[in-house]
Amino acid sequence: MNNIMSWSAEDEATIATNTDATECKRCAVELGYWKDEYIAYFAKHVDRKAPEINRGYYARVKAMEMFIHQFLERCGTKCQIINLGCGFETLYWRLKDTTQAVSNFIELDFPSVTNKKCHIIKRNKQLLEKICKEDGEVVIRSGDLHADGYHLLGCDLRSVSSVRRALAAAGAQPDAPTLLLAECVLVYLRAEPARALLRHLAEAFSRCVLLVYEQCNLGDKFGEVMLRSLGARGVAPPDERHAAPPAAQAAALREVGFDTARAWDMETVWRALPEEDRARAEALEMLDERELLLQLNTHYALCVATRGDLFADMDLNA
Ligand SMILES: C[S@@+](CC[C@H](N)C(=O)[O-])C[C@H]1O[C@@H](n2cnc3c(N)ncnc32)[C@H](O)[C@@H]1O
Which CATH class is domain 9-311? Predict the structure, then answer.
């Protein structure tokens, strides 16, 4: 598939957002916001980002982590994680270094991203050795990587059949407890393909949690500025979904088949983080533009949607 599909200028612009996310994460890691021994393999040189960007990324990573741990607390490690639009995320390796490595970890992105990720993994022993089990083998075929418990595959999230094929090739189990991650990804899909993807996932996995992190409340002046800057990059513009407040985004997830869905803007999430974590992050850099951080935080949301009784009580303060 990888060789016969062609990608538009808009797709190339979308793909480039991964470089940005990876560089921002590396910058925040270097400044001590959180630990990630692996991010430097994926972003070689980074310029220092503004403090409000670093702080925003810290909140994003901590918030995802908080719910990943709630998921693992409820179902243990006999489960699967499916990272949609994974980019160069390092979660697989970070979990491997804890007692929380899961049975199957599946990463999906455009083939050009998974191809590059494959090459970086192949070239770096520290990444590769975490993927190889003792007598296991790692198969790299047409830019996809398959190992026992880790699968990295190229696909187009706008096509349910492409996603279905990729998940089948990765050995995804419909009945296994499943964590679906969509960190700054669905915003690059237009409304209808995004809905179709979510409807498919809600149908396919009877016991699952979906974490979605992306823009919200874009209908105001600040939102207009964000939209203009996204437009200037050439990516598909966010639509009415992103003008909506977090509660409406949660309602949309219930409409496509999730049993429960809750959502909070990132200011609410930030305030719910442990006091000592916030104080530590705040001490790392001076922040002159407090107002700007507040604006940013109120224009991003985290949604948590679930299927199955096991996960129904997942909450910000659970
Ligand atoms: C902003 S990056 C986020 C990467 C990662 N989730 C993170 O938070 O670090 C968005 C990612 O979504 C991927 N993506 C967007 N639309 C996609 C599509 N239709 N099919 C596959 N991947 C897609 C991009 O290639 C990119 O890697």
Answer: alpha beta
